[in-house]
Amino acid sequence: MTQKEKLKCPMCSDKFIPRTFYPEEAIFSTSDGKKLSGFNGYISSSGVKPTEVILSSWITYCPKCNYVLKFVKEIVKKEKIQAQSALVKDIKEKYNNYYFGFPFEDYSQYLQKATREVKATIESSLNKLNLSAFENMHEIKDTFKLLVRFYANLENYCNSQFSTEEDKNLGEKIKLLELSADLEEILIELNEIKDKTIHSDYELSNSDKANVNRAVTGFMLDRIKKHVKPLIDSKKLKNKYSYVDIRDLNSEIKLYLNGYFSSIFNNGRATDEQVKIFLDQLLVN
After folding, report:
1. CA distance linking residue 93 with residue 80, whole number of Å
2. What tens-digit pLDDT sequence spans the chain (285 residues)?
3. At 71, is the secondary structure helix, strand, or coil?
4. Do residues 25 and 126 touch, judged by C-beta distance below 8 A?
5. Nearest CA among 227, 222, 217, 279 for reference residue 254
6. Distances (CA, A) of 201 to 158, 191, 196, 197, 204
7. What is the DSSP track for 171-221?
8. Contact 70/57 with Cβ under 8 angstroms?
């Protein structure tokens, strides 16, 4: 692989990124009429053997006119090797093979490179976000304990974001996070329910329990969206990776994020559906 640029078709002049390169071996005829390919075919071939022959090629196609482009993949050379002695009789002939990689980067290589760079940017942003205190919270099966732990972590998170606002109550701090209206409402409501449960004999209803699980997941997804969304804006990605189909890149990003969420969320179908909807919305530009 020597060049990182578009190929120009010699037939129609269209410039394109090869989807891939296919190997094609040369076929040689032997003295007994057989057809053999590659090095064995060359050695067994009948007639005069040229001192240098292309044994195989990399081929690709122009997507506009289907013209076949070929590039050298392997050649064989008949070369003279002379021993340290200067005697003519010490000179021998030997067949040497030389191999060549892709002459241009193909589409899959461009896509892999773009995916690696975008993933690294997302990982760096998620590390700075520092949501480790909230990860795997769904492993706490007792909903009341989950509720108390979540709000303790939430207050610490708010204090780390707004160090000058530590004297405010948690409800006011939640409003400073600039969450979606629905999420802000449910977090404030659950905070009041948490206080009521701690200081009275109030018991969490089934609806409350469902809201707790939705709030934990929803809060993390909201924070992730705020940091990740600007990094995967389609217009920006198209400008930076002009050779890549944005749909392919989005599929790779979605696959990566789905794996990331699977590692931190494990709370059944409801959470899985919440994550799925989130991913679909996140990648819509």
Report:
1. 4
2. 456 678 899 999 999 889 889 999 888 887 777 888 777 777 777 776 778 888 899 999 999 999 999 999 999 888 776 666 555 555 577 888 889 988 888 888 889 999 999 999 999 988 888 777 787 777 788 999 999 999 999 999 898 888 877 788 898 999 999 999 999 999 999 999 999 999 888 899 999 999 998 898 889 889 888 889 999 998 899 899 888 889 999 999 989 988 888 777 765 676 677 778 888 878 765
3. strand
4. no
5. 279
6. 28, 16, 8, 6, 10
7. HHHHHHT---HHHHHHHHHHHHHHHHHHHSS----HHHHHHHHHHHHHHHH
8. yes
* Sign of the Cα pseudo-torsion (266, 268, 274, 279, in order): positive
Residue type, 34: K
Tell me the residue length of the chain.
285
Distance between CA 263 and CA 61 in Å, rounded? Answer: 41
Alpha-carbon distance values, 227 to 125, 129, 221, 232 (Å): 6, 8, 10, 10
Pair of tokens at residue 113: 């490179």
Helical (H) or strand (E) element with 270: helix 268-282
The Cα 193–Cα 207 span in angstroms is: 12
Instruction: Please give the single-letter amino acid code of residue 186.
Output: I
Where is 55: in which H helix or E strand? strand 52-61
Residue 23 CA: distances (Å) to CA of 5, 28, 72, 74? 21, 16, 10, 10
**Whose structure tokens read 């690294």?**
120
